[in-house]
Amino acid sequence: MSSRGGLTIEYAKTGRASCKTCSGGIAQDSMRVGQETKSSYHDGWDLSWHHLKCCNLPAQKKYGPPAHSLNDIKHWELLRWDDQLQVRKLCGDAVSSTPAEKEREKNSNAVWEMEDELTSQCTAKLLKQFAAELGIDEKVQASTYTHNIAENMVNGRIGPCPECKCMAMVHNGFEYKCYGWISGFTRCTYKGTDGQRFRFDIPEAVTKGNKFLAGWKPSKTHPKKELGAVSNPFDAPSSSSSSSSSLSSSSSSQPIVDDSTPEDEVPKGMECYGMNIMFAGTMKDLGGLSRDQLGDLVEEHGGEVSEDMTDEVTLVISSEAELAKKKPTKKVQVALKEVPFLPYTFLRNLVDRTEDGIALRSNDVAKKLLLAPSKMSDKPIAKKYRAAGSSSSSSSSSSSSSIPGEAAPTKRKQREPRAGSDVLKVDPAARLLSSAKVIVEEDEETGFSPYSAMLNVTDISTGQNKFY
């Protein structure tokens, strides 16, 4: 089975996945290595998971996915310190006892101690709210936002990105990386060591009712400088953000989006964003996929999976045969009263973008596939996708800032992209590579805007544009 790209390492969120090399189960919270492989079920890519011991690393000759160096593995810097050392040794990286290494070890242990405290003292829902208050993009950093919160609490609030000026930078122990936006349609690709730290103030909205967060105090070495009011340069600031200098007020004064507005364009790989799905039925009735495969499919496309019926569940993937049973299971009986039941074809068409495709995220479109006797509730089956810096997320803020006598917000001009940056890359196999290039448009007011939109053909194995 062909594969692409490097590897991703993380701690298994559940115990559902199995190793695609040895077929053994991958225990929850153990290290697992993921690799994108061509799917056997649809025209695209799936993430296959493997035990660390089954990977073909320099120090162990195996038949699993190969990694020639640490550069081939993403997110290894976010592991616990002992696990980092294990991965580095397997990749042939020399581990020394330099002062810098000792400082990294000390910092890594402190961050993980804080993360363990957060996960034990805070609910998952509260942590998501915490991340949202801090402006951490859950859609991009779904597996690491708790770690990023802990890192900020230990070392101080990370300041604006030196490139895009957005509050969307994270630190992995070695360098900063930005997840912000250069413009309304182009992501910032900044990576480097330039980053400022400020005093970390926990937003008041998440301290209510939580003794741990309400009683938390920064260490003596924590930065003392206040962050002040910082806004996204592509969003008009609300009137309240300019009158406050604390992190909580600047975070909570984000523009409120009218829920009646359409959601932003959903990017590939995020088709299930905002959905929490439960499964009910046999493999035969659910596309021939196991529960593990179904769960992986949903999570790989931005969704969440629940084993039992909870308030978080937005829909159930099931079958007519399951609902026709004389004595349905207890969780099915409960779910029938709360959420709609939809067939496997709904999920398949959604992630593959066939038939009604991405429109299936809407209740009005999805109800055409509704399985009787379930009913479509008033609760949306998917939370609306809002891209950072999009016009829909700033529309209400822009209108509220049009106050007589108040100066109109100004937007920073975008710099010309550097040669070799990600936004200028073209598929090396493109026939026009020697004569064509990515279009970069210059505007007197907004500066430079590279066009990363596909104009003809995209290479599915890399996601890069073939022709411009």
Topology:
Blueprint lengths: L2 E9 L19 E8 L6 E7 L21 E2 L6 H10 L8 H23 L2 H11 L10 H11 L1 E2 L10 E3 L4 E3 L12 E2 L4 E2 L5 H4 L3 H5 L31 H6 L23 E4 L11 H10 L3 E2 L9 E4 L1 H4 L6 H7 L4 E3 H9 L10 H4 L24 H10 L39 E4 L3 E4 L18
Parallel strand pairs: 1-4, 10-11, 10-12, 12-13
Antiparallel strand pairs: 1-2, 2-3, 5-9, 6-7, 7-8, 14-15
Helix pairs in contact: 2-4
Description:
- The protein starts with a strand and ends in an 18-residue tail after the last strand.
- Helix 2 packs across helix 4.
- With about 475 residues, it is an alpha/beta fold.
- It has helices at about 80-90, 100-120, 125-135, 145-155, 205, 210-215, 245-250, 290-300, 320-325, 330-335, 345-350, 365, 390-400; strands at about 5-10, 30-40, 45-50, 75, 155-160, 170, 175-180, 190, 195-200, 275-280, 305, 315-320, 340-345, 440-445, 445-450.
- The longest helix has 23 residues, at about 100-120.
- It has a four-stranded mixed β-sheet, with helices on one face.
Task: Briefly characterize the structure.
This protein is an alpha/beta fold and 468 residues long.
Index terms:
single chain; 468 residues; alpha/beta; four-stranded mixed β-sheet
- How much is the radius of gyration in Å? 24 Å
Strand content: 5-15%
Please state the structural category.
alpha/beta
**Which range best describes the helical content: under 10%, 10-25%, 25-40%, 40-55%, 55-70% or over 70%?**
10-25%
| Oligomeric form | single chain
Instruction: Please provide the count of β strands.
Output: 15
